[in-house]
Amino acid sequence: MLKTVGLLLLSNIFMTFAWYGHLKDKGLPLWKAILISWGIAFFEYCLMVPANRAGFAQGMNGFQLKITQEIITLLVFSVFAVWYLKEPFELKYLVSFLFLVGAVYFAFKK
């Protein structure tokens, strides 16, 4: 599972930059932002596909893979939003994330 989580973490770093990295550059034409995002997203897919295959081969089901990926996405995005976008992290976001962690618990509960 460590391999799956590690690959998901790396893939989400790429995807976060692909989806949100262009927001600070307001002068960048949309078509360029799209092409750059696609280029970055290619590397995300090169990590996400093996992550999902490895997790599935190790006994995780599709729901567990998706929920794990979403939690990692939120963690990566939180760091990105505070560090790169300079947005404040508010208590309401923490509470929202804790509810999602509860979803992870129930997804993996036997």
Overall morphology: flat
Give the averaged pLDDT, no decimals.
Answer: 92
- Assembly annotation: single chain
Helices and strands, in order, run as: HHHH
The biggest sheet amounts to: none
What fraction strand?
A: under 5%
Provide the helix percentage.
over 70%
By DSSP, the count of extended strands is 0
What is the rounded distance between the termini?
17 Å
- Whole-number count of domains: 1
The low-confidence parts are: none
Individual helix count? 4
Q: Which structural class matches the secondary elements?
A: mainly alpha
Using only CA atoms, what is the Rg? 15 Å
Report what the structure shows.
The protein has 110 residues and is mainly alpha-helical. It has one domain (2-108). Helices cover 79% and strands 0% of the residues. Helix 1 packs across helix 3 (62-83). The protein is flat, with a radius of gyration of 15 Å.
